[in-house]
């Protein structure tokens, strides 16, 4: 028996069909939509939604920028040096 054991060579039409099907599936599932609307994100958390509404009233249309710095152990011997 001289037939090859490689399934890609033994079944070329089926292999190409499976590859085309995989490509179509990857195209269908490649679109991801993220909804970042605050009302949707906070819909299940009433307390945070109220806090957000208060902050929105105070800030208006201004966009706050929040920066968080981690300074490590400032008062340790290595931090003093």
Q: Any overview of this molecule?
A:
- With 81 residues, this protein is an all-alpha fold.
- It has a domain at 7-59.
- 53% of the residues lie in helices and 0% in strands.
- The protein contains five helices and no strands.
- The longest helix has 17 residues, at 12-28.
- It is elongated.
- The model has no long low-confidence stretch (mean pLDDT 82).
Q: How much β-strand is present in the residues?
A: under 5%
Mean pLDDT: 82
Structural class: mainly alpha
Number of helices: 5
Low-confidence stretches: none
Report the strand count: 0
Proportion in helices: 40-55%
- Taking all Cα atoms into account, the compactness measure Rg is 29 Å
The biggest beta sheet reads:
none
SSE arrangement, N to C: HHHHH
N- to C-terminal separation?
Answer: 78 Å
Q: Per the principal axes of the C-alpha atoms, what is the gross shape?
A: elongated
């Amino acid at each position: 028996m001289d037939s090859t054991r490689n399934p890609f060579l033994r079944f070329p039409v089926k292999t190409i069909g499976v590859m085309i099907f995989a490509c179509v599936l990857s195209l269908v599932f490649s679109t991801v939509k993220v909804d970042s609307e605050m009302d949707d994100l906070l819909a299940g958390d009433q307390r945070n939604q109220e806090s957000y509404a208060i902050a929105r009233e105070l800030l208006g249309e201004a966009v706050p920028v929040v920066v968080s710095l981690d300074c490590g152990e400032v008062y340790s011997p290595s931090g003093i040096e």
